[in-house]
Amino acid sequence: MQTIQIDGTFTYADNIRGLKIGDPIKLLHNTKNRINSDAIGAYTLSGKKIGYVPFKSSKINLKAKY
After folding, report:
1. Are β-strands 40-43 and 49-52 bridged in parallel, bridged antiparallel, or unpaired?
2. pLDDT per position as a tens digit, 17-53
3. CB distance 40 to 58 below 8 Å
4. Residue 55 · residue 36 · CB < 8 Å
5. Cα distance between residue 37 and residue 14, in whole Å
6. Of the chain's two ends, which shows fewer C-beta atoms within 10 Å, N or C?
């Protein structure tokens, strides 16, 4: 299994409560991000944002399994 660093988790701490190591998450391209149109957000399966992929790592394959 590959791993991806997720940043911004402090900001979204309330949305992370209840998640366990190994729980699946969704990585979604945030094309409307005004700072970085290549931004990728990390979300729970129910759609709550839990962070984002760091800028330098945002060129990942969203169709791959991590």
Report:
1. antiparallel
2. 989 988 999 999 888 888 888 889 999 999 999 999 8
3. yes
4. yes
5. 26
6. N
Residue type, 12: Y
Distances (CA, A) of 65 to 2, 8, 16, 61: 8, 22, 21, 9
* Whether this model's pTM surpasses 0.85: no
CA 15-2-5 angle, to 5 degrees, is 45
Instruction: Fill in the amino acid letter for 62.
Output: L
